[in-house]
Amino acid sequence: GSGSGSGSANDGHGKKKGDTDNSKMTASTAGMNDMVLSSLQIGATTSPEANAALQCPTTEEELQSLLNKSNASSEDAILRTILRRHRPLSDAVLDSVCDVCPSPRAASSDVRKDVLSLIERSVPAGEEKGGEEEVEREAKKEYERIRSAVEQCTSSHPASDVPTVGHCCKFISTDRSHVNDPELFAHLDAMAQLGQSVEDLAAGEDSPSHPSIILGVVRVLCGTLTSHNAYYCFGPKYDGSLVESVPKKEVRLYLLMGSSYIRVNQIPAGHICAVFGLEELQLKSVTLSSSKYGMPLNAFHQGIRPLVKVNVEAVSATDTSALERGLARLSLADAAVEVTATSKGERILACLGEIHLEHSILDLKNVYIGKDMNLRVSKPIVDFGESTTWFDTELEDFEQFCQQKSQPLRQTLMPPYCYEDGIGQARNGRSRTIISGRGAAMHVRVVPLSPAVHKALISKTVIDGSEDGLQEMAKALNLKTESAEKTMERMMGLISTIDSKGNAIMESPEVSNGTCVRVIMATKKNKEVYIPPTLQKGSKEDNVDCKEDEKIETMEIDALAKEVYEDIKKNICGEKSDGSNDDEEYIRRHQYALKVWKTDLRGSVNGGFQSGCAFGPICEEPIRGILVVLEGIEIALHERRKKSGTDDDFFLTRPASGGMVAAALKTGIRSALLSRPARLMEGHLRLTLHSSLTGLGPLYAILSKRRGKVLSDTMVEGTDLISIVATIPQSESFGLTPELMKKSSGDVTAPELVFSHWEMLEEDPFWIPTSLEEREDYGEILLSGDNSTGVLNNALKYIRMLRDRKGLLSDSHKIVVAAEKQ
After folding, report:
1. Fewer beta carbons below 10 Å: N end or C end of the chain?
2. How many of the other CB atoms lie within 10 Å of CB of 506?
3. What is the DSSP string of 414-455?
4. What is the model's pTM?
5. φ, ψ for residue 227 (rounded to 5)?
6. Per-residue model confidence (pLDDT) at position 110
7. Torsion angle of alpha carbons 53, 56, 60, 66, nearest 10°?
8. pLDDT by residue (tens digit) across 493-534?
9. Beta-strand runs (E) in 499-564
10. Within 71-131, where are the H helices?
């Protein structure tokens, strides 16, 4: 029909404007008979018994009669008349579904195996041994029978043995008056009077039962659920390894009838019901099964991320247990709420937005706690990340930057950051960390890793936008590659771990081929790696665990250890050193040291990398967007008196465990990152709203004040509204809706906020005015604390806020500001 209308439009537009008689379309107009009339016959669904006026026209006369009755002259009016009468939208959609989509029976069998499928049963390595092999074979057979029944939605019959499986997708809270089950309430009231109710059993209190109960919404996948029967309950992370520890709960079934819940005895497959008795599991979703060899249903990713987090605590310490039970009930009843407990004793409540948070706090007080309680709710908690950026001269000349002796950055000299372990041996993003016992040392470097390069490393191929970042990485690491593809290939061969926060760890080419893995042979005076004089004196920067009587008493340093230390520094900077030796004994020592590194020490590098990136040195937030490079390894060896010509002739002077290597690498990553320019990573939200023309002024002013960026603004067709898409930092999003409504007088709709991405805050938190022009613009530094930088610094403000919330020492907490004043 649409094709014929467009064909008629060409004929109609070919007429002259003044010729009205000829411009009127008729059944004989070119295209009406051979295109429109023939198209109407295809897929006609009008019943033959219908009224003649509703019958689809089949001849030119019937089509002309239809045109005369409609009195339509333009092609648009004619097309609308024909489509509304003989091709309504509802019939067209139904016809398309019947023609294109498979039958319900076929669709059910094709879709259920993908949408409603169970997790594959996994068996740990070494599990099937001895008599357990027969048990596991039986478990697999039972699992296949359950999975087949779920895919076919098999219903149980009196003579059949069909397993029963149901999936609880969410929990809901309802008032007792809506549930028709006096027997259940009599039982709960009796337990409450004895002080043994479900909620009060843990606390041992004699309090009245809650006016509401929590029910699980369950879909029966196969078999028949029966009240008072006990079923095995599988959580979403169950993997099938602990069969005997699966909990078993007795359930009561209810039929959902509007707002009422009617007690029933059985629910067959394919139906949805409410279940009581699963609350104690405290799981977001539960899979019920009559067999202990069942598995949970594949979880669905909702794609919703909580944006607002607060710390909730009771004013009275005696109400803490009741608050925890209330938070657990709230987390069950609201699938969008996340409740977590931190190691510091915080109870974090995460919600989708500010309005959702307000409703959740009200429900927590009035519904889920069950008694009057005063709560203390903190300000919204914002997640940040710690990162770094390039030095000004870092990408110009690798060897020159490596050898330059610049002044240390300001944060390495000011408290409390100057107290960081290992900061005395860190400079320009490089740090030398000594493993506990002083038997080995590692040279660690930290450089920025852009998001585009991180995505390219994960995909193992060069992607659009990553070419420039790969070329920068080749210059910074001195890889000497000619193209981005060669750089990617070289880095993939050196990288050992890539995490989901934009970080990675790799060995330098010199460590990979053994050039920078050096040996220090122990002597009578010294059995350790080279220790700089500052560490020998036991300064605050010492990151080595040693006692006072173990420190070197004199300033005499083993010349060989220092020579190895200087030689490995030259290798790192790209200089040719004289450390290589063709002596057979030297080669044997070097090969043994390389073997010790690859077999005994390198396995713990990933653990140290993960612990080092978990908390940064600035404000103990996760580290994002860095590349850790292992540039050199020093190992102290001792040689036995009796030589056998094998690897047994050497051994480590100080045995190093995996925990020692991980702890040393963590110290090296933190100190190296602190010696680079500090930056914060902040989360950005995607903002979508509609505004009238008069509301654009206040809208842009508010977004600019909150550091927002407008991505697009387009007119909504048929209205005078403009659709705005923008991004705004999460830390600046609180209170945005009330301010928009107030400043725009209602001309702007409430914004929809979803998490978008992480972005670096391009402000140096430790910058101070130094030049004459900067001091004239920003003023002299006369005070400490908030005015220590002379300008309004958002990054420094966020760092102090985070350190204050976590109870860490902050540079703004100085009592004495100007000691010379009285």
Report:
1. C
2. 22
3. STTGGGSTTGGGEETTEEEEEPTTSSEEEEEEEEE--HHHHH
4. 0.75
5. -65, 150
6. 73
7. 40
8. 999 999 999 999 999 998 988 888 888 876 666 677 887 765
9. 504-507, 517-521
10. 75-86, 89-100, 104-115
